[in-house]
Design a protein that fits this description.
By secondary structure, the chain is of the alpha+beta class. Helix content is 28%, strand content 27%. Strands 3-2-1-4-5-6 form a six-stranded mixed beta sheet. Strands 7, 8, 9, 10, 11 and 12 form a six-stranded antiparallel beta sheet that branches.
Length: 292
C-alpha cells in the first residue's frame, strides 16, 4: 500500500457559474511513500483556472503563483486529475494535513465532473490529528503545519511555504518523523458512502432552549460543596454557541455560572456541561510599605 501525501492551493472567488463562492484548485503537489515510509516519487502540476481567471491578492502573496505561470504551464482540471490518478495508482491512501484540502477536492469534482466523490481515492487519512496525538498536543485545537515543523525541529527555510509540492514535502517530513504503523492503521478510512456522508456533514449547535432534543436533566446542577440542587437565578441565555445561566446554592449561599452546549454531530447529539463558582471580587487595597 502506498501513502500519497497531498497538498492543494486554490483561488477563491465569487462566481455566477458556481452560484456562490468557489475555491478553484490551481496547484497540486504530492509525495509518495511505500508502506515502509521510503519516498518513491513526487507529483506537481498547476491548473489554469476557468471560474475566475484573476488570482486574488491573498493567493498571489501567499503562493507567489503568477497569472502568467498558470496560463503558460497550467493544464485543465480534467487533465491534471487524470495524470494524478495515474501517478497515484490504485488502492493508495491519500493523506492531507487537515481535511480542508480533501473538501476542496470534492467541491471541484462536484462542479467540474458532476461527481460527489473523488474517483481515484480508495482510502483517506487526515494526518493532522494523528501527528498532534503523537506529539502529545490537544487535538481540540488544530495545529498549523509550520508550527508542527517548528516543534519537531524541521526546517522550512528552503521551502516556499504555500506552494503545493513544498507543503506536501513538509507534511511528509512531519508524518514520516512521527509515523508508527500500528497506531496509524486505525486512522485510515475507506472512501465509501459513509465516509463522504461524514465528511460533508456540517455540525450544528442548538440555540433554542425549548428544543425537544434538550433534556431537562441537562439543565440541572448540584452544588459542588454540599451536593444539593442549585436554584437557577436567571433565564437561560445563548451566546458563544452555548446556553448560560446563573445559579445559587440556598444552603451554602454560593453562586455559580452554568454553561451547557448542544452540538449535533454525524454520530448524534454531543452535550457539554460546565459549572464554575462565581468568586467575589478581591478588595483592591493599596500595598502597604513595611520597615524593619
Amino acid at each position: 500500500m502506498k501513502y500519497i501525501i497531498t497538498d492543494l492551493e486554490w483561488n477563491g472567488a465569487f462566481s455566477k457559474k458556481a452560484h456562490g463562492y468557489f475555491n478553484e484548485i490551481i496547484d497540486v503537489g504530492a509525495v509518495a511513500f511505500d508502506e515502509d515510509m521510503r519516498e518513491i516519487g513526487t507529483f506537481h502540476r498547476t491548473i489554469n483556472p476557468v471560474i475566475s481567471k484573476k488570482l486574488s491578492s491573498v493567493v498571489k502573496e501567499l503562493t507567489h503563483i503568477t497569472q502568467e505561470e498558470l496560463e503558460e504551464h497550467g493544464g485543465t482540471f480534467d487533465s491534471v486529475m487524470a495524470a494524478f490518478a495515474q501517478w497515484a495508482g490504485e488502492d493508495a491512501v491519500i493523506l492531507t494535513w487537515s481535511n480542508t484540502d480533501v473538501l476542496v477536492l470534492v467541491e471541484n469534482f462536484s462542479f467540474f465532473k458532476k461527481k460527489p466523490h473523488i474517483p481515484f481515492m480508495a482510502y483517506y487519512a487526515d494526518v493532522q490529528p494523528y501527528c498532534q496525538r503523537r506529539m502529545g498536543v490537544d487535538t481540540s485545537q488544530q495545529m498549523g503545519l509550520s508550527r508542527a515543523c517548528e516543534q519537531l525541529g524541521i526546517s522550512a527555510e528552503e521551502s516556499e511555504l504555500h506552494r503545493a509540492l513544498d507543503d506536501a514535502k513538509l507534511t511528509a517530513n512531519v508524518f514520516a518523523t512521527l509515523f508508527e504503523k500500528e497506531s496509524f492503521v486505525p486512522c485510515v478510512r475507506k472512501a465509501d458512502e459513509e465516509f463522504y456522508a461524514r465528511l460533508l456533514f456540517k455540525p450544528t449547535y442548538i440555540n433554542d432552549i425549548d428544543s425537544p432534543l434538550i433534556k431537562r436533566s441537562d439543565l440541572s446542577f448540584a452544588c459542588e460543596y454540599c451536593g444539593k440542587n442549585l436554584h437557577r437565578k436567571t433565564k437561560w441565555g445563548f451566546r458563544g454557541k452555548q446556553f448560560i445561566a446563573e445559579f445559587v446554592c440556598r444552603t451554602c449561599k454560593k453562586t455559580f455560572t452554568a454553561r451547557v452546549q448542544y452540538k449535533q454531530t454525524f454520530d448524534g447529539l454531543e452535550v457539554k456541561r460546565r459549572l464554575r463558582e462565581k468568586l467575589p471580587p478581591e478588595d483592591k487595597k493599596e500595598p502597604t510599605e513595611t520597615t524593619e
